[in-house]
């Protein structure tokens, strides 16, 4: 009894149909396949190629084709058809890739955004506007409660301050009593907690003003002394600059007046000197 064998291989090898005896082992089937495709490995045992059925079953190399016949196949019937696939074995990793995929999927789902504020409802209003309106309504509804809590806190603060100052709270008739503090700490607390006091120490103020003026005058004198020292070292450039500045600033009329006055002084001073020289020459 022979068996019709349909072998589907991977690229670049095409499918092949063979008719072999049913007692032929799988290893001999591979030898028939290598005769047709010489580029395949010579032996099935020394390669990473295996024959498998469409259901994924991998028969051992010593198994015959009869073991792959269908269960309802008759021996006297027509030749049964057996389909095999020639597939290479792929080396796997250490495993655990599925758990990594599940963990990555969980992270991706947790990072998925759920912000739909930019969407609109059936009336055309944005969801963010509706949320803000709801928050504003809730805020306005809770306004009396916040005012009451604020007033309660202010009242408690006032009572604590009155208790610290030793002032008893007023009764129904508007009367109250205050007790003077006795200890030193209580007096200090009482003074610090009271009204603000004006600082009237005039002597201290005058001393501070006098000290500041003395410091300013000392600093200005030091700077002036330093300037004089630098001017003496440089040949009094400040005086020359001042004189040139005064000459430039004076008008022509002032210059003429100054020259006239200088000439008068020279005329007044010169004659006595000449007469004195003449008298000495005469021998008076």
TrEMBL record:
Residues 92-220 form the SDE2-like domain. GO terms for biological process: mRNA processing; RNA splicing. Its main location: cytoplasm. Residues 101-121, 225-267 are annotated as: Disordered. It is found in: Cytoplasm; Nucleus. Residues 4-88 form the Sde2 ubiquitin domain. Residues 108-117 have a biased composition (Polar residues). Residues 1-19 form the signal peptide. InterPro entries: RNA_Proc_DNA_Dmg_Regulator, SDE2-like_dom, Sde2_N. Keywords: Cell cycle, Cytoplasm, mRNA processing, mRNA splicing, Nucleus, Signal. PANTHER family: SPLICING FACTOR SF3A-RELATED, SPLICING REGULATOR SDE2. Belongs to the SDE2 family. This is Uncharacterized protein. It comes from Candolleomyces aberdarensis. The lineage of its organism: Eukaryota, Fungi, Dikarya, Basidiomycota, Agaricomycotina.
């Amino acid at each position: 009894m022979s068996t019709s064998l349909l072998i589907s291989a991977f690229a670049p090898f095409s499918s092949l149909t063979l008719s072999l005896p049913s007692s032929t082992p799988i290893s001999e089937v591979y030898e028939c396949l290598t005769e047709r495709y010489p580029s395949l490995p010579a032996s099935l045992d020394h390669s990473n190629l295996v024959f498998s059925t469409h259901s994924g079953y991998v028969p051992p190399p010593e198994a015959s084709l009869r073991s792959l016949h269908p269960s309802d196949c008759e021996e006297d019937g027509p030749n049964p058809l057996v389909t095999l696939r020639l597939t290479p074995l792929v080396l796997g990793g250490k495993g655990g890739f599925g758990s990594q995929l599940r963990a990555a999927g969980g992270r991706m789902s947790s990072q998925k955004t759920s912000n739909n504020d930019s969407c609109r409802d059936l009336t055309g209003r944005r969801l963010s506007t509706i949320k803000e309106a709801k928050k504003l309504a809730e805020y306005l509804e809770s306004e009396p409660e916040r005012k009451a809590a604020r007033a309660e806190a202010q009242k408690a603060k006032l009572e604590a301050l009155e208790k610290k100052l030793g002032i008893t709270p007023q009764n129904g008739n508007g009367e109250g009593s205050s007790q003077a503090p006795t200890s030193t700490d209580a007096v200090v607390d009482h003074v610090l907690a009271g009204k603000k006091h004006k600082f009237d120490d005039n002597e201290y103020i005058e001393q501070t003003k006098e000290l500041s003026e003395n410091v300013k005058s000392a600093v200005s004198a030091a700077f002036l002394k330093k300037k004089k020292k630098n001017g003496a070292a440089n040949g009094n450039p400040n005086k020359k600059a001042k004189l040139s500045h005064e000459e430039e600033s004076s008008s022509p009329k002032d210059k003429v007046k100054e020259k006239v006055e200088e000439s008068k002084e020279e005329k007044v001073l010169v004659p006595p000197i000449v007469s004195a020289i003449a008298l000495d020459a005469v021998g008076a």
